[in-house]
UniProtKB/TrEMBL annotation:
Keywords: NADP, Oxidoreductase. SUPFAM superfamilies: NAD(P)-binding Rossmann-fold domains. Residues 77-88 have a biased composition (Polar residues). Belongs to the short-chain dehydrogenases/reductases (SDR) family. InterPro entries: NAD(P)-bd_dom_sf, Sc_DH/Rdtase_CS, SDR_fam. Gene3D superfamilies: NAD(P)-binding Rossmann-like Domain. This is NAD(P)-binding protein. It holds the Pfam family adh_short_C2. The keyword Cytoplasm does not apply. One of its GO terms (molecular function) is oxidoreductase activity, acting on CH-OH group of donors. Residues 64-88 are annotated as: Disordered.
Length: 344
């Protein structure tokens, strides 16, 4: 029986004592049962391609919240790589879709936020990212990536659980960038609690303060500075559609965010301002290693595509919704979730 690891590269394995057959990987063409061949297969399966292969499982690791990307084990999340049709990978190919645009991205230090900042920069945008003070090392790495791609990126350190800090974030973006064309509400938090009886009121309120109240404040303070053609993009979640029981506060806050997206779109679309949301499925980010149990991580690859997503694969959705490619789309949700049908 083919193990999960070998499903990346093996078409079929004969478990008899003398032969192993039908590798379809370009890495191997030698058909022998010795351990050297097995080790080579494992090394290949753990390379950059593995994260896009069916059956890929994330490394089990645990961090303190909020989670730091530079402390994650390899393979770390990828910000700019995408799978190809031949089971290899390639770097994102920009097309000048955001030249001259100014973007405020919350939670841009790591994960989906970092990948979005990098892809925006590759498309020509200038950026200000927010991060928590303890995330500054990751945020500085985002800046390094952006500058390496020829872009400009500024950092605003703050906890956005409060109207005052959200207002300061907008003010900093206007000061550093001169304008705001795109608001990406990406910052979020979660904590796994199996039963409502164990979910304390303080956690419920803190989750909503981060995941929905900050979005209201940032949108409210940014809107007076937006113009026709501007875009607000909110990062929601598949969990609002499937009703994940062990993330009750998170799931509820993301459901509120989807409703907020639709309502704000109906309010602002007449002004030429589009408001949309993205609802990722399981995506490998520091939030996962900081908040999920070992059991949840072991099941993290269980999507119809047989693997979790990478931040790059969600960031490209942000590029689409921020650009004129999506000029006739508002009030909608995109679902990069590995093939889960949500009818939403």
């Amino acid at each position: 029986m083919t193990s999960t690891l070998y499903q990346f590269f093996v078409g079929e394995i004969n478990n008899g004592p003398h032969q192993t057959t039908v590798f379809n990987s370009s890495f191997l063409e030698l058909y022998t049962p010795d351990m050297g061949l097995h080790k080579e297969t494992i090394r290949a399966a753990q390379g950059p391609q593995a994260q896009f292969q069916q059956g890929h499982q994330i490394p089990i690791q645990h961090q303190e919240q909020p989670g730091l990307q530079h402390e994650m084990e390899d393979p770390k999340p990828t910000s700019t790589q995408f799978p190809t049709e031949d089971n290899s990978y390639q770097t994102y190919k920009p097309a000048g879709k955001l030249v001259g645009k100014k973007a405020l991205i919350t939670g841009g230090d790591s994960g989906i936020g970092r990948a979005t900042a990098i892809l925006f920069a590759m498309e020509g945008a200038s950026i200000l990212i927010t991060c928590l003070p303890e995330e500054i090392t990751d945020a500085q790495e985002t800046v390094r990536w952006v500058e390496e791609k020829g872009g400009k990126c500024h950092i605003f350190k703050s906890d956005l659980r409060g109207a005052g800090n959200c207002k300061k974030a907008v003010e900093q973006a206007l000061e550093k960038l001169g304008a705001i064309d795109i608001l990406v509400n990406n910052a979020g938090t979660q904590t796994m609690i199996k039963d409502i009886k164990d979910l304390d009121e303080e956690q419920w309120e803190a989750t909503f303060d981060t995941n929905i109240h900050s979005v209201f404040y940032l949108s409210k303070y940014t809107l007076p500075h937006l113009k026709s053609g501007s875009s607000i993009i909110n990062c929601a979640s598949i969990n609002a559609y499937i009703g994940r029981p062990d993330l009750l506060d998170y799931t509820s806050s993301k459901g509120a965010l989807i409703a907020f997206t639709r309502g704000l779109s109906n309010q602002q679309v007449k002004n030429g301002i589009r408001v949309n949301a993205i609802c990722p499925g399981p995506v490998w980010t520091p939030l996962i290693s900081a908040t999920m149990t070992t059991s949840a991580m072991e099941q993290f690859h269980e999507t119809p595509m047989g693997r979790p997503g990478q931040p790059s694969e969600v960031a490209s959705c942000f590029v689409f919704l921020a650009s004129q490619d999506s000029s006739f789309i508002s009030g909608q949700c995109l679902h990069p979730n590995g093939g889960v049908v949500v009818n939403g």
